[in-house]
Every structure is written in structure tokens, then in C-alpha cells.
Amino acid sequence: MVKIALLVRLKIPDVTALTAKNALQRRMGYAEILKDLRREDYYLLEVQGDEASARELVTKLAEDTNYFVNPNKHAFTVCPWGEWPGEGDNGVQTVRLLVTDPADTWAEGTTAALRERTGGQVQSVERGIMWTLRLAADSAEAARKMAEEIAVTRRIDQGLLVNPHFQEYHIV
User: Fold this and answer.
1) Can you list the domains of the chain with their CATH numbers?
2) What is the Cα–Cα distance from 28 to 22, expressed in whole angstroms?
3) 129 pLDDT more than 70
4) How far is the first Cα of the chain from the last one, in angstroms, to the nearest whole number?
5) What are all long-range contacts of 106-112, with beta carbons under 8 Å and residues at least 24 apart?
């Protein structure tokens, strides 16, 4: 069993991410710390087989079905879970924050449909939002702490990307 991540982003500017970045930088005081903020739809597919065949299957599903990608407005990346696409360093730390909704039932129906379509090769599907924060920080640990402070809503003036009352999050 192999876990393959499918990251789906808009081809045009993402106004949700731009608005969140603007609010964090201008309204919440993170202008010097938050260098960039991006958002992608995240899907984790657990697939039978080796990594190469699993990546090929997920790529084919992304290209040939409408479960994940609309080719008119989306671009996508397929990668093994945890091997996120690299980005330049330049003294800026990259932190990825995965936000999920435990009450989301979309995955159940999609998993059943994909099992049938692939002859049982797809075992499970999870869905969430992957936020990528580029932060000015001295270390990866400092960046992780700052990302959690920026992301998790604790007060009206702290946190913006995660509502801990109904969402779960993981720094990946």
C-alpha cells in the first residue's frame, strides 16, 4: 500500500489565499514574518501497488476524471506523501499546514466510486486544504511555532486559517 498526495491549485490567482495573506500581513501584524501564503486542495490516496504505478494511477485519475481537477482552471502535482515539492530557501523557512474537517463525508462516496473504477486499487481517499507558509525565521522549529500561531484561531486577533472548534490541523 502506497500513500500518494495530489495537490490541486488554481491556475489563476487564488483570491482566498491573497485575502488571507493581506489580512495576516496588514491587519494582524505579520508583515515582517509572513513572506508568502499559498493554498492547495489536498487529496491523499492510498493505492495498492508500488510507488511508480500508484503515481501513474493517481495522475491518470486527476487527468481523466472530474473528482479532483477541472483542467480549465486547475493545475496539479502528484507526489508520495511527505515528499512535498521543493522551494528555494533564501533564509526563508517553508511550513506546510494541512487542515481537515473530520465531519467531511465527501471521502466516503469518492472512495467507493474510485474503488469500483480502479478495480479496488484505490483503498481510501482523504481530503483537506494544504496551506504553504513562507516565514522569516531562524530555524525550522521557530517557523513551525510561528505557523501555528498564525494559523490556529485563538482570539479575534490571533490565528486565521484553522477553526479548532470543527477543524483539525497538522504541520507536515
Assistant:
1) 2-171 (3.30.1280.10)
2) 9
3) yes
4) 20
5) 110/67
